[in-house]
Amino acid sequence: MGRLDRCYNIADLRDVARRRLPKGVFEYLDKGTEDQISLSGNRRRLDETKLLNRVLVDVSDVRLDANILGQSAAMPLVIAPTGIAGLTWHEGEFELAKAAAAAGVPFTLATGSNTPMEKVAQESGARAWFQLYMWREKELSYDLVRRAAGAGFEALVWTVDIGHGANREHNLRNGFATPYRFNARSAVDMLTHPEWLLTVMGRYMLGGGMPEHVNYPEQFRTSITQGGEKKGAPKTKAMRADKVSWEDVDRLRDIWPGKLIIKGIMRVDDAQRAVEHGADAIVVSNHGGRNMDSAPATIAVLPGIVAAVGDRTEVIVDSGVRRGSDIVKCLALGAKAVLTGRATLYGTAAGGQAGAEKALSILKNEMRRTMAYVGVQRPRDINNDIIWRGD
Ligand SMILES: Cc1cc2nc3c(=O)[nH]c(=O)nc-3n(C[C@H](O)[C@H](O)[C@H](O)COP(=O)(O)O)c2cc1C
């Protein structure tokens, strides 16, 4: 029996990932920020949301397929962009994309990934979305957007909740800040995880060196240990823009021919502006509790946002999904679909494509089971009457 066969839920995959990865990489993946309040709040709110089972109805034909941005998907789930996937498994983002293709769900490639975007879009077989961070010198980002359009990505996901960057103290302690600065502690950490060292780092080294940010603009295309700009490249003040506005959405709308999604919306007025500026979808997200530690749970703000804009744009939600029942809860609260970050990444870290497929099949089975309990046969028929409102 292989180690994936002994994984019955996402928490089991997380355990395998924790054992396989160096602590620095695992905590980078697993933790939130500062005091972990937003991270635990996402989970607490999902756990406290209770569903009512409906009995004596026909649940002999429960199906999960759903429509996401005008195309069918095998379930209402999209794999979220996670910049570190390539450090959990060799070309981890490509493994995730292939798993998404096999499971029939879209995959989002992060700007900070280590596999060329063209390879993911053209060789994985997945419906591919590209996530964008905006550089201060915006033309650099526009060039990436044009590159993503040329590569054939279906949707552009602009992540807007980055602000001044996150205060993730555990990464500093572990020597896993970006750019990665190895210290004695992180060196010991890696040496005591030889399987990871050989199968992930070893394969990158055999292929030519440290993994690179191959989807960054040319002058920032450095290895993960170098970061910043290439020597001799023209100086720009910051890699990430902290001076952006809604006009930038208009500019992206002009340049980008496909679907445009704004990720990181938590306020009704921002959701309304996103719609006014032509977003085809928004992702209600607090970045999985990884950025602002004072953020409320996403499912707490979701119903208000859906009430305001749900008839004009597709509202997707993320942050905290670990069970199929969580997906049902998100849909009952008005989301059209969910993104999964850690759930599918634990799978990748545990077993590459096979592990990510395992995570998706666990979520599918759990979702199907929950739908049968609450007496609904199709995701589109899930609504808030299955939510228990208290006595
Ligand atoms: C390790 C890791 C790296 C991430 N990197 C990115 C990124 O590069 N771009 C982005 O928009 N979101 C990034 N996210 C956030 C995810 O896209 C998503 O919003 C979040 O993981 C959802 O919460 P969940 O992990 O509880 O499912 C990252 C999340 C994790 C866990």
Walkthrough of the structure:
This protein has one domain (10-386): Aldolase class I (TIM Barrel, Alpha-Beta Barrel). The model has no long low-confidence stretch (mean pLDDT 94). The protein has 391 residues and is α/β, with parallel strands linked by helices. The N and C termini lie far apart (46 Å). The protein has an 8-stranded parallel β-sheet with strand order 3-10-9-8-7-6-5-4. A two-stranded antiparallel ribbon has the order 1-2. 50% of the residues are buried. The protein has helices spanning 10-20, 23-30, 37-48, 85-88, 92-103, 117-123, 138-151, 169-174, 184-191, 194-206, 246-255, 268-276, 298-309, 324-332, 342-374, and strands at 66-68, 71-73, 77-79, 107-109, 128-132, 155-159, 259-265, 281-284, 314-317, 337-340. Flavin mononucleotide binds at residues 28-29, 80-84, 110, 112, 131, 159, 263, 285, 287-288, 290, 318-321, 339-343, 345.
What keyword list fits this structure?
two-stranded antiparallel sheet; 10 strands; TIM Barrel; 15 helices; 391 residues; 8-stranded parallel sheet; alpha/beta; binds flavin mononucleotide
What is the gist of this entry?
The chain contains 15 helices and ten strands.
